[in-house]
Amino acid sequence: MTTILLVRHGETVDNAAQIMQGQTQGELNEQGKRQAQQVAERLSSEPIDAVVASDLHRAIQTAEYIAEPHGLTVTTTQLLRERDWGSFTGRFIPDLRGKVWSDDIESEETLLGRARSFLIYITTTYPDKRVVAVGHGIINKAILAVYAQCPMREVQRMMNAEVRILSTSAGMMASTTTAACTTATAARTATAETSTATGSAAVGAEASAASGRTALGTEASATVASAE
């Protein structure tokens, strides 16, 4: 089994200013640096075999604090990047509530696929190891959803520098991937049958995603509010 200590990076300048960072680099502010130092101290006595981070600067900064007491270097991966918020990137988050999602925002399906790929990568690269993985608010939420096999909306938001522990294996992830593919195929089949029976396109999130115009409702607004 691979043990993953999943960490969200420390607070950044843009977090404090409520700016949608998405896949921009970001920079820890003084509070974020203190948070990173504190989590590094908490994990300093833990056996750690590797430290992996998103290739975005704010995650690397946090990971370096954690890696230093263990004499480890930080390995980066694009799989841990934050959600690509497209044209929402760089905007004031409170202004985005009630807005219509543009089609350049990374879809939840793509995000969950990336999270699944990350878990497969970690478990195959570091079997039976203890690995710190430093990511971001929304990608971490997707990773936890894939791990727990539940919808993202059921996963509690991670705070800056929070740590959650996951234990899994490549074999378990392969089973999860097979189950996810089966579920997705069944869902597409059911949608197609519904569309045929009614003579119209399926109504709901899938139809909205297809049109690239998903309205920001309560759940989507909560996702935006927790983004970083």
Task: Give an account of the 3D structure.
This protein has a five-stranded mixed beta sheet with strand order 3-2-4-1-5, with helices on both faces. With 228 residues, the chain is an alpha/beta fold. The protein is built from eight helices and five strands, in the order E-H-H-E-H-E-H-E-H-E-H-H-H. It has a single domain, classed as 3-Layer(aba) Sandwich (Rossmann fold), CATH 3.40.50.
CATH-defined architecture: 3-Layer(aba) Sandwich
For the biggest sheet, the summary is: 5 strands, mixed
Number of separate helices: 8
Output the structural class: alpha/beta
At the first level of CATH, the class is Alpha Beta
How far apart lie the N and C ends? 30 Å
User: What is the H-and-E element order?
Assistant: EHHEHEHEHEHHH
Strand content: 5-15%
Any idea what the shape is?
A: globular
Strand order of the largest sheet: 3-2-4-1-5
Report the C-alpha radius of gyration, rounded: 18 Å
CATH superfamily: Phosphoglycerate mutase-like
Report the helical percentage.
40-55%
